[in-house]
Design brief:
This protein has seven helices and seven strands, in the order E-H-E-H-E-H-E-H-E-H-E-H-H-E. Strands 3-2-1-4-5-6-7 form a seven-stranded parallel beta sheet, with helices on both faces. Helix 1 packs across helix 7 and helix 4 runs parallel beside helix 5. The chain starts with 8 loop residues before the first strand and ends in a 12-residue tail after the last strand.
Length: about 250
């Protein structure tokens, strides 16, 4: 397993923190050259430096994933430096917690742009390279694609759209390119530090695993879907939620 991605080039968006950082580290540990893309140049550089310090290979790139120009620039850079790539992990995300009637139009568009349009833009930028390498795309959706949570209308719409788009891309671009998605549940990423003890306790009681997941556990699922071990998996969605979406307790 340590060499599943030797000689592979992988782009990870939102790679500067949380699930993206964990996935960048995991791909690098398994032999990939990782392009760590993030809206924060400093965050991308920090993760890339950590990978390099441990003997891996990484390149930080600042990228606003809702920008077609940023995707085109990144694709040109990757092509000129590495000659192509093998995997795109669309992981960048943003959320504004408001009910639909209170969302400003710009807030709606930003969430759709970062969370969903970015997947479309990744295809526009990297499809020729992915076809040459018979590569794959792994998208980070969410249990929000399946369940409703208060105040997350745009986020839910974007993550649900990502699931449908994942299936469609698998149909349109197979057999050359595989496309799958992971659906994380409650994962211990930086935003959870702002949650109350009461909310975290409720979440734990709603999760059969009895704990929050870790970014590294999602990274393991992403790397599985990107590997040759998943060669007959395309158009699929893989829950990584500790059973959160399976359990409903009417007493809570």
């Amino acid at each position: 397993m340590a060499s599943r991605f030797t000689d592979s080039v992988v782009v990870v968006t939102g790679g500067g923190s949380g699930i993206g950082a964990a996935t960048s580290r995991r791909f690098a540990a398994e032999g990939a050259t990782v392009v760590v893309a993030d809206i924060s140049a400093d965050a991308a550089a920090a993760v890339a430096a950590e990978i390099e310090d441990k003997g891996g290979s990484a390149l930080p790139i600042r990228c606003d994933v809702s920008s077609a120009a940023d995707w085109a620039a990144m694709a040109e850079h990757v092509e000129s430096r590495f000659g192509g790539l093998n995997v795109v992990h669309n992981n960048a995300a943003t959320v504004t917690i408001k009910p639909a009637h209170e969302l400003e139009e710009a807030e709606w568009e930003r969430q759709i742009g970062v969370n969903l349009t970015s997947v479309y833009l990744s295809v526009r930028a990297f499809l020729p390279s992915l076809r040459r390498s018979r590569g794959c795309i792994v998208n980070t959706s969410s249990v929000h694609a399946m369940l409703g949570f208060p105040g997350r209308s745009a986020y839910a719409a974007s993550k649900g759209g990502m699931v449908s788009l994942t299936r469609q891309l698998a149909v349109d671009y197979g057999p050359e390119v595989r496309v799958n998605a992971v659906l994380p549940g409650p994962i211990l990423t930086p935003p959870w530090k702002a949650e109350s003890d009461e909310y975290i306790d409720l979440t734990l009681r709603s999760t059969p695993a009895g704990r929050l997941g870790t970014p590294a556990e999602v990274a393991a699922a992403v790397c599985f879907l990107a590997s040759s071990e998943a060669s007959y998996i395309s158009g699929a969605t893989l829950l990584v939620d500790g059973g959160f979406s399976a359990q409903k307790d009417p007493t809570q």
